[in-house]
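Lecture notes, continued. The same structure-token format from the folding unit now serves as the input rather than the output. Read the line below as a description of shape only.
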């Protein structure tokens, strides 16, 4: 199996962009799908959202069309998606992967101003990311010309069929050049997909991401708790959860090395002893971090998956998914780092509502549900800190050897209770820095934002577009 993006046939511009984004290695679907697509083959892929599927088709498409400038006003790539939200998300992904090649994705979906979209399309879009109904509308009104198309992707094809887009897809595909390359991704094996694939794909490479077996036992030993919060509150949430849980050692996973560095800084600012670990660091630095972690001179290690591979530390009490990992198997590998040597382990996941789908993929792999928890309130955190400080002080009194300090206290001739309180206050401030404002922050519950408390309960999380063409 090829292990790095450089092995997949992608050019320097894309590799540079991936390095900037901090992606360290391709996910399984990317390893399997990128080489045949770069080589020009059609592809029939089975992969759920949250597996890194977008990059699996966007990168090879960019590789193939990124340097073509022949007919700049006509799109060279088309991605069909079931919902407006996915259209926006996928177009954004093209924007970030395609920066170096100066290719952007233009999202086109129903329910938005038709004329504005048409103007955008006429100005020239190399990649159009569209819901089928609206794409067809633009084709009929001649604001979308597919005659120069080199590549088409049907993303979440099963969902598009479920939504009644079968005829639209048929009409769109029929209007594209025969020479185009086609990739079709679906989450399930619906028989109706086979028919479309048969008709519109040319000797496709079949790619299916096999699920690992026998993970149930590993996952069951570990308590799995999840917090669902808006993205902007992830750091505050993590800080509070760490304050409550008081881990012996926590390993916090981020998807990219940029996130690792940012989060390590943020947690250091909250008074934790933090080390970062990622693939951009030399071996000596990594060894140093591991030595410190084993020697209990660190509270939190923030790492990417690649850098944390093979880490085995007995006193690792907590694994934190600061992001839900793109491949569910990665989640299982991550949480397998804790709960070792007969100890109790806790896995904490901090997800945005958008990541709900990825959580469901994980639940179906581990056959275990997340325990959904409320973010600790500032009062809970304060009272936990107080208890901890009391316990620490009681221990220090018991340990004795206070003579030199006692003589200082006596020499001050002040009220001993007040003195002790002042000492506590400065100890507290020195440890935690000044987080007065952040400590008061009210982290909104997902249900406060008009959605249900549990992402699993989302009936329609992505604002489905109806296949209704009258909206333009
Ligand atoms: P997707 O399944 O395409 O929706 O991707 C899920 C998330 O994983 C997105 O936020 C991507 O930015 C991220 N992602 C995709 N591929 C990688 C990778 N190789 N390394 C790190 N993050 C990735």
């Amino acid at each position: 199996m090829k292990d790095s993006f450089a092995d997949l046939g992608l050019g320097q511009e894309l590799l540079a962009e991936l390095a900037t984004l901090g992606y360290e290695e391709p996910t399984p679907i990317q390893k399997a799908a990128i080489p045949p697509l770069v080589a020009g083959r059609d592809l029939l892929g089975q992969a759920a959202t949250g597996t890194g599927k977008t990059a699996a088709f966007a990168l090879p498409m960019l590789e193939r069309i990124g340097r073509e400038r022949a007919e700049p006003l006509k799109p060279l790539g088309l991605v069909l998606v079931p919902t407006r939200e996915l259209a926006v998300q996928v177009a954004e992904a093209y924007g970030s992967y395609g920066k170096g090649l100066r290719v952007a994705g233009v999202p086109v979906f129903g329910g938005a101003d038709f004329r504005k979209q048409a103007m955008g399309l006429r100005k020239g879009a190399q990649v159009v990311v569209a819901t089928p109904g609206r794409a067809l509308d633009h084709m009929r009104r001649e604001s979308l010309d597919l005659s120069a198309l080199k590549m088409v992707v049907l993303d979440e094809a099963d969902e598009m069929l479920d939504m009644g887009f079968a005829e639209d897809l048929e009409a769109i595909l029929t209007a594209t050049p025969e020479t185009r390359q086609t990739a079709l991704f679906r989450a399930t094996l619906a028989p109706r997909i086979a028919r479309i694939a048969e008709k519109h794909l040319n000797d496709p490479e079949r790619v299916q991401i096999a699920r690992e077996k026998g993970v149930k036992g590993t996952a069951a030993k570990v308590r799995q708790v999840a917090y669902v919060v808006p993205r902007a509150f992830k750091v505050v949430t993590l800080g509070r959860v760490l304050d409550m849980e008081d881990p012996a050692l926590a390993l916090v996973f981020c998807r990219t090395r940029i996130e690792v560095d940012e989060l390590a800084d943020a947690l250091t600012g909250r008074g934790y002893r933090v080390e970062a670990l990622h693939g951009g660091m030399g071996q000596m630095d990594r060894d140093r971090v591991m030595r410190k972690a084993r020697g209990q001179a660190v509270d939190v290690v923030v790492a990417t998956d690649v850098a944390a591979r093979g880490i085995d530390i007995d006193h690792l009490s907590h694994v934190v998914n600061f992001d839900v990992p793109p491949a569910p198997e990665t989640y299982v590998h991550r949480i397998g780092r804790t709960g070792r040597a007969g100890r109790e382990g806790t896995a904490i996941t901090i997800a945005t509502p958008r990541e709900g789908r990825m959580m469901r993929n994980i639940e179906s792999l581990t056959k275990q549900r997340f325990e959904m928890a409320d973010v600790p309130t500032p009062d809970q955190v304060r009272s936990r800190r107080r208890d901890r400080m009391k316990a620490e002080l009681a221990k220090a009194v018991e340990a004795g050897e206070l003579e030199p300090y006692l003589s200082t206290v006596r020499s001050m001739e002040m009220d001993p209770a007040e003195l002790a309180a002042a000492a506590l206050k400065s100890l507290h401030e020195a440890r935690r820095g000044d987080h007065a404002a952040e400590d008061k922050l009210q982290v909104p519950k997902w249900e406060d934002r008009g959605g249900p408390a549990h992402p699993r309960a989302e009936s329609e999380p992505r604002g489905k577009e109806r296949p209704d063409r009258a909206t333009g």
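Point for the exam: The chain has 20 helices and 14 strands.
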